[in-house]
Structure formats: C-alpha cells, structure tokens
Write a structure and sequence with these properties.
- There is one protein chain.
- 89% of the residues lie in helices and 0% in strands.
C-alpha cells in the first residue's frame, strides 16, 4: 500500500513537472518569439518569479518520491524509479545552473534594456529549457512504465 501511494505521488508530481515544462516549450517560448522584446522580458521576469515556488516544489517532490520509491522496490522497478529520480535531479540542476542565472539577467534587462547580445542568452535559455523538459518527460515515462509493470502484476514489489 505504501509503495502504491508513493508511486501515485511520484507520477502526479513528475507529470505536473513534465507538463509545466512541456507547456512552456510548446506554448510560451513560441509566444515569446512573437511579441516585442520588452514585453517578453517583462512577462518572462514575472513568470519566473511566480514559477519559482511551484516548479521547485514539483521538482523536489518528484525527485524525493521517485528515489524513495526506488529504495522500497527491487529489480527493474528499482532501476526505473531511481533513474526517474536522477532525471528529475538533472532537471533541477539544469534549471539551477542554466536557466536561473539567465533569468537573473532577463530581470535586469526588463528594468533597463537588453544588451546587443541578448538573443544569444535567450537562445541559451531555450536550450536549457528544452533539456530540462526532456529530462522531466523521460522521468515521467519511466514512472509510467513502473506503474504499468506493477499493474500487470497486480501487486507492488516490496523489499
């Protein structure tokens, strides 16, 4: 019962994370390209301020629940859950060391003016965003496979 609830929590939080990043990549980034740069910078700054708590929370719950699930399962389920947890940690690291520093620059630009090379930084932000979207989506797929394997067995694996 405990592993089923943990699997549910990890699926839910990782699905939210992958969905948030996927929505951003599919909808927000193209919208950023179609509005004037000052509007993009203002919106981007405000969006990142609002996203800070929710995205970090989803990453933390996703990583912790998947890693604890890995500790409570064995065999293939353990490997899949551990890999999902590590992929979520990778999403966090990409965000923290890739996107966040650029977000700080964007916030400064919104208050002043973007430098001549701003497009290079915005492109780099988008590459980091694509990378974290892929790691979060891969983690979600792995956890779905754990759930499908366990549903196929009719039970959960325990230590």
């Amino acid at each position: 019962m405990r592993t089923r609830l943990l699997l549910g929590l990890s699926l839910f939080s990782t699905g939210l994370l992958a969905g948030a990043f996927g929505y951003g990549a599919a909808n927000l980034v193209p919208t950023f390209h179609s509005v004037p740069i000052d509007m993009r910078l203002d919106f981007h700054s405000e969006l990142m301020r609002m996203n800070g708590i929710t995205v970090q929370g989803a990453m933390a719950v996703s990583a912790l629940s998947a890693l604890v699930l890995a500790a409570l399962t064995r065999g293939r389920a353990r490997v899949l859950a551990a890999t999902a947890g590590l992929l979520t940690v990778a999403s966090f690291l990409i965000t923290r060391f890739g996107n966040v520093p650029i977000n700080g620059r964007i916030k400064q630009w919104a208050a002043t003016a973007p430098p001549a090379d701003h497009a290079e930084f915005l492109s780099r932000w988008e590459l980091f965003n694509d990378a974290r979207t892929c790691t979060a989506a891969a983690a979600f797929v792995l956890l779905i496979s754990v759930a499908l394997r366990q549903a196929g067995r009719g039970t959960t694996e325990h230590h």
